Amino acid sequence: MRFSTAWHRIVAWALFAALTSPAPGWSQAWVATGDPALRRLVERLVDADVIALPVFAWPIPRRDLESAIEAAHQRKDLPPAAMAALAELEAKLGTPTTRSRSEGSWSLAAGDPTDLRGFVDAPRARGEAGVDWSWQDPATGGANRWSGELHLTAAIDAPDGPALQPDGSYLALSLGNTLLSAGWQDRWWGGGTDGSLELSSNARPVFALSLDRERSTPFETPWLRWLGPWTMGTFFGALEARRPDANHAILWGFHSAARPLPGLELSVTRNAQFCGSTRPCSPAIFWNVLAGRDNRGENVSAAKEPGNQLATYELRWSSHVGAVPFSIVYQNTGETIDNKIPRPLRSLALISLATWGDYGAAARWRAHLEFSSTICSDFNYAQAADCAYENGIFTAGYRYRGRVLGHSTDSDSRQYTLGFALDEGTTSWELLLRRAEINRIGTIPQPNHLLAPNGPQTWWTLEAAGRHDLGAGRLEWQAGVERVRDNLRDTTVTDPRGWLRYVKPL
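The structure assignment produced for this chain is given below.
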């Protein structure tokens, strides 16, 4: 169960060769993470009960979304506003009859992006040039088994990896209702807008082999049909070949979500680090991960302790107060699991509240308020420092190339955000005010902490962002100001932050 460097390279080159070879049957398998306007539109249609599918785990299988759209078209009760939003979603995705046989784009980006990343495909370096390529087959309606995309990004002064990155590339095989994938896919598991506690796109995507349910169709048996649309997926990823704790460690992930009632979505996720050059690695070790036998001295010996594990339960509820729609998300992530009652312990928390409406005939607005804490057992007697994303076995922590795989505020932090977005067709505007209390109770110094290794800091950021058609391409931008106060030294630094990207079809 160990990803060796040799196998990693073999699979990577096989993926590259497959994607760069002429193949007339390709179609995109996934709706990628990173487009907040698309995500808002999908959630709006789900909350309006126009389409039915879980929305916690991104990327979303394209066929699941297309099946939900097709089912919505069979209905006769949709109001004109819902039909217009549905047509807009189809235009963003591109239907099998409008997608070309092969398509690609190039992009250029420059700027100084903030380290506090939300659900947006922001640049990771001061300068980037990218080429994306995908293949479509309109003749078969996207029914082919094989699918894939190639994304190559060259970065100037990349802070977290080599200059050339394959982030977003994958090769996938559809078998029945199962989607097998291999590649570097950004994953965002959670309903938060400005962060996700267990798995987000804060760190670069790891190379992973994944197995997912492709369509979230309900069970046919009456005993389980009450669960409604449901998803399930798992992956095994390869962490760095050179780490301070264990080279070639494995990152395992599992997620499942269901919508048992209109407006209600429930989710369970787990992630674990295990194996590696200095750790035991066998089917028995993985069984200890699955069974939660990872607390030395309690349910496993020190020699057989598998590694580091997080577990999350989450719910999302949408409804109305009078005529005002709202949604509320609660995410609870445990750094360990209760051995007596299966539940997360030493928990981190995220709460997000949103409302939305229409602006004029064709525009939609959305406002949200979000709070997150990466302090274990915050606000109670069991509050613990140096707990979140840290581990005694994997001493580099729950990180990849220095960045936490969960929330971008890193450990021992709180964040409050207030956001507003306006979407109209292919144009979107966003405004975000953020206050983050970074490393507020952690040990000093804390070398693993990316943002504040030398003590607590308070960050204030004000950001504006937008996406607009410009000529034959698309302009994406973010601009703002970031004020960072060193709470120990009583110093303050204020800097502009932002980036600009232009994307043009080939």
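Interim note for the steering committee: Confidence is low (pLDDT under 50) at residues 1-7, 13-26, 137-142. The longest strand covers residues 344-359.
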